[in-house]
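Usage

Read records sequentially. Each one opens with the input sequence:
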Amino acid sequence: MTQIGLPFDWSGQGGEGAFLVSEANQIAVRHLEGWRDWKVRTSILSGPPRSGRSILARQFAAASDGTVIEQAEQVEDELLFHAWNRAQLEGRPLLLVADRPPAEWRVTLPDLKSRLAAAPHVAIAQPDEALVRALIERGLAAAGTAWAADVPDFLVRRIERSYDAVAAVVDRLNHASVAAGRKISVVMAKEVLQSAGLLPIVRGDPAPCASRQIIKEA
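and closes with the structure output:
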């Protein structure tokens, strides 16, 4: 796990600090850093919600003086077509940001289809294990709640590997910790998250119908 350095001073995914770079996003990050070398002055960035794609796009725009179009797959074909042509004529880079890769967009304008096919496309993947752990640690630390050192490893092995899942789990634990005035432990995390349906039952975990006493002793 690394934090991106120059030429961009990235912000964190939805939080403070440097943008966390892992195998899930490093290709996209390096491509945006290399905007000066783009032969086609337009590129496409896709990625799931909460993946930091909008943060990367904003920093790209600030560094390159380029144009960013968010939710590009929902923009009218004619507008995208003219934005593409303008970027090539002016030499000003254009970044199209979307949920899905361009092959999945509903494009009816043939000239736009050919241009999108010619544009480099980089994607942010769902987080790998290292990034999940780092985002959990950052989320817990940012809220200022106390948590046991073994909590992140416990969560990494059990929760869904997605940005939405990490955000939901961290939010639930932070709120539960504040409400109960308790340090977040593995026992507490298991109890709170299984109750909320955010933690699957795995071998060695208590069943959902188990009593509160059994859960606390697990």
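Summary fields computed downstream for this record:
- The chain is about 45% helix and 10% strand.
- The longest strand covers residues 42-46.
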